[in-house]
């Protein structure tokens, strides 16, 4: 009997254990959801649309959709409001399209084993996931009847799939050997057309066979008869609508607008006289996006030229000016994507300086009547750093309330407004961007040349990374920023070691000096309560220079104790002025300022070495403790006065990656971290408890800052266009940016400074 009781007890344990595991896993998932629900993404400043395949509009709601990293931005251009769809796989979104009824958005992504995902627009939730591709998805499209989705893989994927998305099955599939950059469904959903490098192909759906057979059937494809244009790159394709439903229109990178008839024969073409990248076809118009900001309109009935639409801003424009005068020799950004809303008669355009315009074109007979409904200008290259106005600070600050600065490899420093309202006068080009400082007269650095090469197909296979590196090396690129405590000076360091000081009152450059041999990686002003006015600069050359702000930034001391790149330097202390620095040599140096006969001098008091690389550091407001973000994903808390480690805890919820940035909030209660696994976390500084998590960037986060009211966390990154040949992680400077505002909310309300907003 005892044996029977033991057996029954073991059986009960075995039956009970799966439910326990399920309950435990459910608890973990619920906890992760609770952490992510404590923050909400308020705004994204940036776009990563490489061409027409990543720009779409819904004529019913007027929403414009485009990707920004692994987030889909749903923009209401009339109200300047954003809604966001998050790709939980953290993979960059490469292409998207609205369903005919506007209720759904389909997206494709990059990376290994990518998925085609369908999202409900109203709730911003995923309703379907289709996974058959292996190496990235180049373009997707809904059929006009809403039943099917076509997805085309990258050139190495070589697969074209037709999905019955509501049943989650592939109904037809085939291989394609050419590089495909565009796809378009016919008006009756009986066929679709793909276009690319020397490639125009018509794919026919046998509805009877696809409906009756449960298995995937071969997709029937027939090449278009290109004739003498067979060697062209067809950068975009659009099937005719309405009375021209039997025609198919293509555009070549050399600047030809072509029409194919119902027999797949190239019937006629016209020369645009400029290089072209994108195409949009409606019942009454054909819009061609071309170089130098040109958009031309044609009639689909006979390809007759109708008009040329207004161009955007010229490169190097002063956005703070109310009057814009462009010289004849001025350059304009190239158009890389266009989409038309026939209900509202809005034409949305994306340009290769990462600007977005929505034009109101109610009367094309007179293009001068075309008005700008919405516009936004973003960084065109990797954003390396950002800076907010110092809290407190003596005297009157020159930065408006609620503003912040960002710097980028595009050689610009930009002043943004969080809420769209600023003490500066509003400008007509952007509600968010208030001022642009150009540190280089060469406007080529403002252009994202890779987007044009992707759209026009001019990049060569296997060489896109190398060419991108060469373009990036020609840019100096601003690497780091710091605002002086009094709010009057802005210090910036670039990748060639040049230190610049700007007067924030008018953004005039007052100092330009070669401070380091290579990248300036960090800058730090001493705090007002130290009684000193110092600026410390540290770089990849392993040196720290201490400058006297009050004496026109004259050199006070040079420190050379580090044996590798210095990743962070900070000042602390009230009675004794201290300097703390950490670097890739796994060392933390603690120094104390002393007055000697020769002047001020920092001497080393403590030296701590760890077994892991130290990537970033921040000092809490009282100046007692320093938090260091490390390669092993840990946060190490050091006592600044004695150099001893006080506490250690994990700074990431994941099991992979490295902590890249840490930032303590102005209240000194919480610390935000960014990890190389693209996740952001907010932790209790003293207990190490994770209070919130968030994601949205598809590449490494290069900077993060709390706003002074602690209501916003601003993050910047190097999100780039996804490509079939991803670059090595060391070339983050090739990437292209977007900024995110995360509005912090939660249940803890520690008075008096840090207030989570309950929504």
UniProtKB/TrEMBL annotation:
Which keywords annotate this record? Repeat, WD repeat
Q: Which SMART domains match?
A: WD40 (SM00320)
Query: The organism sits in which domain of life?
Result: Eukaryota
> Which Gene3D superfamilies does the protein's record reference?
YVTN repeat-like/Quinoprotein amine dehydrogenase
One Gene Ontology term of the biological-process aspect is: positive regulation of JNK cascade
According to its record, what are the GO cellular component terms? cytoplasm
Span of domain MABP1/WDR62 second WD40: 383-719
InterPro entries from the entry? MABP1 (IPR055292), Quinoprotein_ADH-like_sf (IPR011047), WD40/YVTN_repeat-like_dom_sf (IPR015943), WD40_MABP1-WDR62_1st (IPR056161), WD40_MABP1-WDR62_2nd (IPR056162), WD40_repeat_dom_sf (IPR036322), WD40_rpt (IPR001680)
Residue intervals of the MABP1/WDR62 first WD40 domain = 54-377
Entry protein name? Mitogen-activated protein kinase binding protein 1
Species in which this protein is naturally found:
Astatotilapia calliptera
The record lists the lineage as: Eukaryota, Metazoa, Chordata, Craniata, Vertebrata
